Amino acid sequence: MTNALTGLTLAAAGDGLARGAFSSVELTRAYLDAMAAARALNAFITETPEIALARAEASDARRAAGRARGRMDGIPIAIKDLFCTEGVLTTAGSHVLDGFVPTYESTVTANLRDAGAVMLGKTNLDEFAMGSSNMTSYYGPVKSPWGPKDGKDLVPGGSSGGSAAAVAARLCLGATGTDTGGSIRQPASFCGIVGIKPTYGRCSRWGIVAFASSLDQAGAMTRTVEDAAIMLGVMAGHDAKDSTSMPLAVPDFTAALGAGVRGLTVGIPREYRIDGMSGEIDAIWRQGVAWLEAAGARTVEVSLPHTAYALATYYIIAPAEASSNLARYDGVRFGLRVPAASLDEMYQNTRGEGFGAEVRRRVLIGTYVLSAGYYDAYYLKAQKVRALIARDFARAFESVDVILTPTAPSDAFAIGENTDDPITMYLNDVFTVPTSLAGLPGISVPAGLSARGLPLGLQLVGRPFDEETVLRAAAALESAAGFPTTLPTSASDR
Q1: Coil/strand/helix, residue 406
Q2: Residue range 155-203, pLDDT digits in tens
Q3: Beta carbons within 10 angstroms of residue 37's beta carbon
């Protein structure tokens, strides 16, 4: 029964609950058992079984009384440990937030809770969401359920690596993620799941621990495109507590899924064929083009001429905003405090011990580019280039409905690889960062396996607040790819 329940998709589980085939408590217990059996993955920082069972019992009571709240009611999910959750430890994967228990709930997790979703626990992540491998977490790296490969454990991608691993290993039916430069889409690609970053402003950022405020956006990580549409529909919506939240109605994202791609024009950006691109990444990209054409879409080449500057632009703007946002962690009001003889020394000791090496690196970069004499040369120039990148997309979308690209430049790599080379690590985001800088919706759909038998994803990018077309094309891509949905063998052995 447990395997049968954890093998369901979110949509199928919702249908089963509605039919009375099983209860939310039975479904939740199946996932709690699966989490206990897979702790070696280190996907969760905090498990919340008492909260999960209490919410599952409440869901069953509502359903018995005919007051079910929709398709998410009674569905067990995981929450990335970047979302503040009332009364539950929130760490952001950092030592500096030791013991921090928020007295409030983030808007996104409140929306999920109010829709009846059952929180199983808080998932591991790169510290303050800074990373593409989940290796910078203070709580240790997450192992991909697709490993080990060649005798080595694999990264799940990052920063939402715990969420991606939990969904892929069937430890939850869906998970929240956040995406600043690719932190939903890249781990989705590495773990063979669906990950959608909606348009900046579609989901409230209130109550999410900030990394780079002009880029951070919450999204859904699930096993199928339909599941992503269901979950995102609950997460999204205007929030007066977030000044960047757009006052727009949330459409029924699932309504667009069956429309197919006939009549759509799909753009293929020529600048994304980068030097040194892996042959199998190029092959899966060409296969994606063929799938969409066979389904009735028209594909055309488009130009995004400032693509080459996107990564450099991102690694000026994001660290600059991070250096400002992380200034609040000083050991005074919450989190870690390292005692010292003076206040200044306490600040230095707390931040020096509380932040990991990658966070310190980005804070230093950000402080440098914002400093007097360098602000115009770096930060202001980066903002101008960001505007040009956004203009490239706007011009492309005058003639196409959606853009197709690879999600990541490779399949998953081994834990410990590239740790001494931050530039190589940053290149993991080369295909996802431009979309983030432009604030556009993007989704990664599992499309095939590499020669090593590991997942490869394709990315679809859409116009601002046109997640419906993105999901519509993603459903067609998913149908054509027929990606295997069976549990990775290695995960079941853990």
Answers
A1: strand
A2: 999 999 999 999 999 999 999 999 999 999 999 999 999 999 999 999 9
A3: 16
Is residue 158 within a helix (H) or strand (E), and if so which, with residue range?
none
Cis peptide before 159 (omega within 30 of 0): yes
**Residue recorded with tokens 């600040």:** 347
Question: Catalytic: which of 144, 159, 163, 436?
Answer: 159
- Which of 59, 80, 189, 197 is an active site residue? 80
For the record, the structure tokens of 469 come out as 């077309």
Give bridge partners of residue 350 from the DSSP assignment.
Answer: none
Tokens of 422: 């931050």
Measured from the Cβ of residue 242, the count of other Cβ atoms closer than 10 Å reads 16
Q: CB count, 10 Å around CB of 333?
A: 9
Among candidate residues 59, 183, 436, 490, the one labeled active-site is: 183
- For residue 1, is pLDDT > 60? no
CA geometry: angle 416, 418, 423, nearest 5 deg: 150
Angle, helices 49-64 vs 10-19, to 10°: value is 50
Can you tell me the mean pLDDT for 325-346? Answer: 95
* Residue 467: strand, helix, or coil: helix
Q: Is the pLDDT of residue 481 over 60?
A: yes
Residue 159 a catalytic site member: yes
Quote the pTM value.
0.96
Q: Element (H or E) spanning 46, and its range?
A: strand 44-47
List the structure tokens of 331.
Answer: 């050991």
Rg of the chain (C-alpha set): 21
| Residue 485 pLDDT greater than 90, yes or no | no
- Active-site residue flag, 183: yes
Q: What is the mean pLDDT of the chain?
A: 95
Q: Is the pLDDT of residue 490 over 60?
A: no
Q: Under DSSP, is residue 220 helix (H, G, I), strand (E, B) or coil? A: strand
What are the beta bridge partners of residue 149?
152
Block residue for tokens 């090593």: 452
Q: Phi/psi of residue 205, each to 5°?
A: -95, 0
- Give every CB contact of residue 256 below 8 A, 6+ residues apart in sequence: 229, 468, 469, 471, 472
> If we measure between CA atoms, which residue out of 84, 95, 89, 83 comes closest to residue 360?
95
Listed in sequence order, the residues at least 6 apart from 483 whose beta carbon sits closer than 8 Å to its beta carbon are: 192, 445, 446, 447, 448, 455
pLDDT band of residue 2 (cuts 50, 70, 90) is: low
Phi, psi at 44, each rounded to 5°: -110, 140
Q: Is 4 exposed, middle or buried (0-12, 13-18, 19+ CB in 10 A)?
A: exposed
